[in-house]
Structures are given as structure tokens and as C-alpha cells.
Amino acid sequence: MSPARTPGARRAPVLGRDAGPVGRAVRVAAGAAALTHLLTTKAPDHGGGALLTAAATAVVLTAGYTGLLLLLRPLLTRGAGHGLAGWPGGALFLLPMLLYPIGVLPDAPALGVALYVEFSVLTAGITGYGGIELAALPALVLGRRPVLYGPFNAVDLAERGMRRPWHATPERTAGWLAAAGLAWFWVVPPLAAVRGAFGDSFDALGVLDPAACGALVIAGVLLAVPAPGPARPRRLRAGAFVLLGLGGAVGALPDVLWPVVILTGLVIGTLRLTSGGHRDARVPATGAPASGAAVPEPPVTSRPHVETSSTTR
Q: What is the pTM of this model?
């Protein structure tokens, strides 16, 4: 029998559901930067009717994704290794957004899509939701937080190296370097796209892009150094950050993160379906979860992007 949980004890953060302080700060900064670009540079190019259409599009997306989350809820409550939770669900939420980068949407609805995405990023940061940003508003409406992997989880992976007492100085340094490098590519480009002197000042900072790439690569190298704690997750993060740094050097960051989520989600979803991993867990007559079955995600508590950060670069 497991020991009783201490009253008031904090549950461990779950990747794809809970964002830590650094992850929240990066989401807020990225969402605010992208919305600044949209509202000061893109929106003024549209007339009143187009702006109403954009607003309506954002509202429809909110309702649509809320309905989707409600519909998929039974497949999102068994943990990241089952059903659509984790990668497959994140891919499913991102797939409709492919209409944006391929250019089939008229200008006004496309602006609405961008507004929805970036406001969702900001909402995720404010509320501390650490899943796919497109589910942040629906999760807030429904009061449930599904485990759904998305691009911003790269920051959460960087932050993981700062949490445990056994994390050594190289791993903590790697976490800060990786988070700073990722934040740079989410925040600086949309602000540099703002018209006028404000945008020009951020555009001039583009000369520091190689430094941000270098920070990611150095983070990967530091994580490759032997250290206490689980070695496999650290090595996986090391490889990911080196690849992201190289991607930034060729101008693929952060845009490359969205197709990575989609492709990975489709592959993992297919494997789960073909292996029967989507079957429901058996629940004993006592009502206790079966061994290996994940407990349903807890209710939301009250807690103080192709152009982007995700859609506006």
C-alpha cells in the first residue's frame, strides 16, 4: 500500500500539462510579442469588416477546439502513454492549423487564426498550462488539463534540468542556456517585424542570432557530460538542443517545432492503434485504478505562429 499523501503536498509537474515558472514566462513573452506585432502591424492593414471576420474566426476556433477537447476527453485521461494523450493529441490539434501556412485562407480569417494562436500562447503562460497552446483556452473553459505535447515543451524540457537537488551545475546552466536560446527565437523576430523605430531596434538585434544558436548547442554539450540522475533523458535532451541550435542557424527555429510535433504524433498514434494501446484500462470493482492506468487529470486551479512566434514572424 502506498503511503498517504501529505495534506497540501504539491503534485509533481507533468510534461505536457504543467508549465513551470520559466516555461510560463517564455509563453507569456512569446504570446505578448506576437500579439504586439499582430495588433500594431497586421490588424491596421484591415478594415472594420475584416477585423470583425477575424474576431469571429477566433471565436469559432475557441468553440471548435473546446468541442474537440470535450469530444476527445475519454481518450485523453489515461496519461501520455495511452490513447491520444501526449504526441498524437498534440498533432491532432495542430493539423487544422496547416490551412494557415499553405495560404488557402483569405486574409481576414488568417488574421483570426493568428490571433487565436497567439492569445492561446499568452493564456497558457498566464494559467500555467503546459500542453499544446491551442488547447489552453478550451482547458480553461472546461476546467480540465489534458496531457498534450507541443512546441513550447522544449522550454519545459530545458527547465527540468533546474528542479532536482541532484541536478549539477552543468545541467542547471544548460537549462538556462537552452531556455534563453529558445525564448530569443520566439520573442525577438515578431518584435523585429513591428513597423517603425521600435521594430528596427529589435531587428538590429538579429546579429545576435548566432549567440542564441550557440547557447542551445552549448546546452546540449553540457547535458552530454556524465552527471548524477537518469542518463537517458539527459542524453535525449542533449541531442534535441544541439539539433535545435543547428536548426536556428539555418533559420528553421521555431517553425520546425510544429511539423516535428505533427509527424511524431502521427507516427506514435499509428503505433498505438496497431498495437492495441488505445484500449480502455480495466477498473477493479473497488473503484481503484488498474495497475498502470493513469489517474484522470485534475481540475484547473486558480493560478496567478508559416509566420510566427508561431504565426506572426
A: 0.84
